[in-house]
Amino acid sequence: MKITNILTDKKALSVYIIAIIAIFIGLIYFYNISINPVDNHLVEHNKNDSLHSTHKIIGSEEFIYICPMHPGVKSEKPGVCPVCNMKLVKKKLLKVHSEHSENTKQEKTDSEIMSISLSPNDKLMANVKTAHPVIKSVNKEIEAFGVITYDTNKLSKVPTWIGGRLDQLYIKAVGDVINKGEIIATIYSPELISAEKEYLYSLQNLQEIENSQLSELVSSYTETIKAAQQRLKYFGLSEQQILSIKSLDDIKDSIPVYSKYSGTVIDIHVLEGNYLKEGEILFTLADFSTVWVEAQVEETNLSEVKLNQSVEIIIDSYPDKLFTGKIDYIYPFMDSDTRTIKIRALLKNPDLMFKPDMYAKVLIKSNPKTLLTIPKSAVFQTGKKAYVWKEDKPGLFQMQQIKIGKSFDSVFEVYEGLQPDDKVAISGGFLIDSEAQLNKGLSGGHNH
Length: 448
Fold this sequence. Notes:
By secondary structure, the protein is an alpha+beta fold. The protein has 8 helices and 26 strands. It has helices at about 5-10, 10-55, 110-115, 120-125, 190-210, 215-235, 240-245, 430-440; strands at about 55-65, 75, 90-100, 115, 130, 135-140, 140-150, 155-160, 165-170, 175-180, 185-190, 255-260, 265-270, 275, 280-285, 290-300, 310-315, 320-335, 340-350, 360-365, 370-375, 380, 385-395, 395-410, 410-415, 425. Strands 4, 6, 21, 22, 23, 24 and 25 form a 7-stranded antiparallel β-sheet that branches. Strands 7-16-19-18-17-20 form a 6-stranded antiparallel barrel. A 4-stranded antiparallel β-sheet has the order 8-15-13-10, with no helix packed on it.
């Protein structure tokens, strides 16, 4: 049908207009279907951008079962701990989901993550007790380990005063006790025989001319006799022995050696039959009425150690007894391997209880110092770091890093991280720590 006919035919024209309108409406409908997904995506994208910029956090409550003694044991169902067979405890946790953009990402610190809030009932069940750091006067007790040694000021060497052959040795074993004046050896000595003959001949010559008028000769022999007597004394003969030499029959070819010291033999240097030189050492003696305790003090504790300071000594052989002594020497050098300095304490030993090389522990008490202290039970140490659980608000515990110094009995010195008005957990801290570690792990592990 031609268009001119359609236009002249009113009925056909109305049908044609309706068809065109239907086609137009259909086009609009299909266009909206295709365009809406794109618009929705853009809207959602913008919405996400808004969420990323505001770092939205959505929370939901969840329950889990854990072991109070082994917080790493977790289960979604009731049961018992496979480690200790203890009944698992139901816990309500807040599971956190986080959405954020790369541009607004911020890292949380350990203290933000490691905190926990406990209800009064939770504190009671966990036996959590708090206390303030205490300023107190403390005495540090330093432990130094060492051994008993000889008092070298009371070591003696017993020599021979004349050369010759050692015919007899009266002391046979290390540990024998020698008293001063006791005979310890007999030595055959040609020098002694020669000195005795010289002395005897001088005596005889003096007797022959003492009534003569040769005064100069008398004087010469008198001096010779005195020199011979002195030589015999030097060789070890007593005045009685020297005066007893009246004839060749009285000349002795061997000489007894007497000890000039008392003590216990700790070394024998010769054997019978040895030929000895003048001054050669026969024995070494030790006087055990006093001994030394030599102990190693750590370099960091040296400032606490003073000369003439009283110390308490524990001997491993007598663990139930406590002995006292005094520091009489601090060695002027350090052991570079152990970073320790040797000290020496004098210990009286009247009953000879203490033997060289016995192990000993020396307890040195320092002078009182005023320090800020907390109980050792409050402190957690991880490597070189230390921290406590500080109660910032009632029931809210925060992990607080501290710096500790020396330990004194049951307390630590605190020189950074706490003030006297702070409150820290002194008992139950282990459960607080375990609970916080557990919550950290179950919160999604986000350490942003």
